[in-house]
Specification:
single chain; 376 residues; mainly alpha; DNA polymerase, domain 1; hpI Integrase, Chain A; three-stranded antiparallel beta sheet; 14 helices; elongated
C-alpha cells in the first residue's frame, strides 16, 4: 500500500514523497517526489492526491531518478544474464552517458538532449559506430525502464543517431599471416599455433583458447569447436563458456594442418616431460601450463599477435584473421552455407551481410563466365 511524507524545504515550499512497492532491480523501496507551494494544509491535500495517483500507476516511477542512478540499477539487473565481455562493453558506453547526461532525471531527458549529445560526441572524434552503439544501449536500458514502470515512453525512439557507415574488413595477404606465424614460432610458439589455427578455421579468439586436445579427430580430419574461454568481468579469472551460438560445430582440417598439429603435440609433450608432468587428458591445446589444465588467456593471444604484426610491418587486429579466412574461402568458390558453418554463424544471412564484398567479386567472375559464352 502506498504511503507518503511531506517536507518543508523552505518556507511555503514542500517536497512530497510517495513510496510504492519495491524496485525490482535493487530491492530498495521505490519512491517518487513532487514539489508544491502553499501552506501545510494544502500540502497535506496534495500529498494525499499524490499518493493515490502513484498507487494507481498514474505517476512514472522514475520521475525523480537520475540517469546515472538508473544505469547503476540496470547494470546490476542485466549483468548476471550477459557475458563479462558484453558487460564491460556496456560499462564503457554507460560511462559516456553518465558524463553527458548522468545528472538529468530520466523522465526529463528529451530527444533533443540525445541528438545534441550525439553531435558533440561526433565533433569530439567519436566514430559513428560508437555513437550508434551508445544509442542502442540507452534504448535497451530505457525499454527495461518502461517494463518496470519507471517511464511511460522511450525517448530514444525519437532521437536520430548517426547513420551507420559500412566499413569492409581489411584484405589480408596470406603471406602476411604466414609471416606473423613464422615470427611467433621462435618467440611465442603457443600463440603462433593460435594464429595459425585462426586463419585455417576462422574461429573466434575465445573459441581457439577453449580447444582441448580431445577436440581433434585426426582419423576424420575434423576439429570440434565446443566452448569458449572468456575473461571474467574483473579479468582476474577465466570462464569456460559455450560458443557464441551456444552450439558446438565441426570444422574439417586439411592434411598439412593435421601434420602441424601433430608436430605441435610432440612439442607440448617435450614441455611436459621437461617439467616432469604429463599432459592431462582434458588438457587445453593452447596452454602455457605443461599439463594443459589452464587455457591460454584470450588477451595473451591478442597481445602476442599485435607484437608480431608490428614486427612484420602489418597493422591488423587478431579478428581480421577470421575475415581473411572467410574471404579466401568465398573467393575460392565455397558456398555460403559451408562458410557460415565454419565461422559459427547461426544464420547464413549474417555471412552474406558481412562478406557481401567477397560475394560481389564472385559475381564478377560469374559475369566473365557468361560473357565467354556469347557468340562472336
Amino acid at each position: 500500500m502506498a504511503r507518503g511524507t511531506k517536507t518543508e524545504i523552505r518556507p511555503g515550499v514542500w517536497r512530497l514523497r510517495a513510496f510504492v512497492g519495491t524496485d525490482p532491480a535493487t530491492g530498495n523501496p521505490r519512491q517518487v517526489s513532487r514539489t508544491v507551494r502553499g501552506g501545510a494544509r494544502l500540502a497535506d491535500a496534495e500529498l494525499a492526491r499524490f499518493v493515490t495517483e502513484a498507487a494507481a500507476g498514474d505517476v512514472p516511477m522514475g520521475a525523480d531518478q537520475t540517469l546515472s542512478d538508473f544505469f547503476d540499477a540496470w547494470l546490476e539487473f542485466v549483468s548476471p544474464h550477459r557475458s563479462p565481455t558484453t558487460v564491460r562493453g556496456y560499462r564503457d558506453k554507460v560511462r559516456r552517458w553518465k558524463e553527458a547526461l548522468g545528472r538529468k532525471k530520466v523522465s526529463k531527458i528529451t530527444a533533443q538532449d540525445l541528438d545534441r549529445t550525439y553531435a558533440r560526441w561526433l565533433e569530439d572524434g567519436a566514430a559513428p559506430a560508437t555513437v550508434r552503439h551508445c544509442h542502442r544501449i540507452l534504448a535497451t536500458a530505457l525499454r527495461q525502464a518502461q517494463r518496470w514502470g519507471l517511464i511511460t515512453r522511450c525517448v530514444t525512439d525519437m532521437a536520430r543517431p548517426p547513420a551507420s557507415v559500412h566499413r569492409e574488413s581489411p584484405e589480408i595477404d596470406p603471406d602476411v599471416w604466414q609471416a606473423v606465424v613464422l615470427d611467433l614460432r621462435a618467440r611465442e610458439p603457443v600463440t603462433a599455433m593460435a594464429v595459425l589455427m585462426a586463419g585455417v578455421t576462422g574461429a573466434r579468439r575465445g573459441e581457439l583458447c577453449g580447444l582441448r586436445w580431445s577436440d581433434i579427430d585426426p582419423a576424420r580430419g575434423q576439429l570440434t569447436i565446443a566452448r569458449s574461454i572468456r575473461h571474467a568481468l574483473d579479468k582476474t579469472e577465466l570462464i569456460v563458456a559455450t560458443t557464441k551460438t551456444g552450439r558446438a560445430r565441426r570444422v574439417s582440417l586439411d592434411a598439412r594442418t593435421l601434420e602441424l598439429l601433430a608436430d605441435y603435440r610432440r612439442q607440448a609433450e617435450r614441455w611436459a616431460s621437461a617439467a616432469s608432468v604429463s599432459i592431462a587428458s582434458a588438457g587445453y591445446m593452447l596452454s602455457l601450463d605443461p599439463t594443459g589444465l589452464t587455457p591460454l588467456k584470450p588477451d595473451t593471444v591478442t597481445a602476442g599477435f599485435g607484437r608480431a604484426a608490428r614486427r612484420v610491418g602489418a597493422h591488423l587486429r587478431f579478428h581480421d584473421l577470421r575475415h581473411m579466412s572467410a574471404s579466401l574461402l568465398i573467393g575460392a568458390g565455397t558456398d555460403v552455407l559451408t562458410v557460415a558453418s565454419r565461422l559459427g554463424h547461426a544464420d547464413p544471412s549474417t555471412t552474406l551481410r558481412i562478406y557481401a564484398h567477397a560475394f560481389e567479386a564472385r559475381d564478377r567472375q560469374a559475369a566473365e563466365v557468361m560473357g565467354a559464352l556469347l557468340p562472336g
